[in-house]
Amino acid sequence: MNRGSFGYVLIDFDGTISVIRRGWREIMISMMVDILADLKTGETKSDLIKLVSGFVDELTGQQTIYQMLRFCEEIRHRGGTPADASIYKQQFHEHLNTHIADRIQGLKSGAILPEDLMLPGTLDLLENLTNRGLELYLASGTDIQYVQIEAELLGVTSYFKGRIFGALDQYQAFSKARVIQDILQTYAVQGDQLLGLGDGCVEIENVKAVGGTAVGVASDEIRREGVNAWKRDRLMAVGADLIVPEYREQDLLISYLCND
Length: 260
Fold this sequence. Notes:
By secondary structure, this protein is an alpha/beta fold. It folds into 2 domains: about 10-20 and about 120-255, Rossmann fold (3-Layer(aba) Sandwich); about 25-110, no CATH class. It is built from 10 helices and 6 strands, in the order βαααααβαβαβαβαβα. Strands 3-2-1-4-5-6 form a 6-stranded parallel sheet, with helices on both faces. Helix 6 (about 145-155) links the parallel strand 2 and strand 3 (about 165). Helix 2 packs antiparallel against helix 3. It starts with 7 loop residues before the first strand and ends with a helix. The relative contact order is 0.18. The mean pLDDT is about 95.
């Protein structure tokens, strides 16, 4: 594991900084299972939950549209005729936006404090990394308009200085791997100067693929403390160099990574 020579940090958003969208996985799986069950293939609900959970988890960290494209394949496989993937994505967003509406309104009104919807220690982590002169990039599989709004509501936008990226309608134009390649090419640096933090397998794999150091964030998004064992096991399996539950000990973490 590389330590001490970082210049750039790629950070995921949902589950890594923000817990505004906690519950999204259950909402997506439920929506897909209900639609597949309507095809009346004889599969049990338990079978469908296992199937859908598998590909939703596999694709977590990529843009939401990729989960919907895979969902369309499952409908076709069962003899159905799917709508366009973008329709299912819109349907999912409608369900999720309803689910999180009180959180968004609470942040806007001040009834909910930003720190109540972030992993503990997040602002201290971002401040620490910034003060060390590292350039921070935020990259999320969530649609860019939501990422920008929610990052602003949480008060983290300024740390990224315009370097905030998210899913696009023209989804081929964005990926976390592409953001990483842009960093390396723009600054003509090697991958060992890249540090990544995320709770999804995609960003961990992308950072490791170029020789960077990847910190897996095995966050419990409900309790906001302690290690989520399911996340930990998946992050370790794809090569995370370190696992943290949140950032209460961010000072020790960054000191270790920067080889103080």
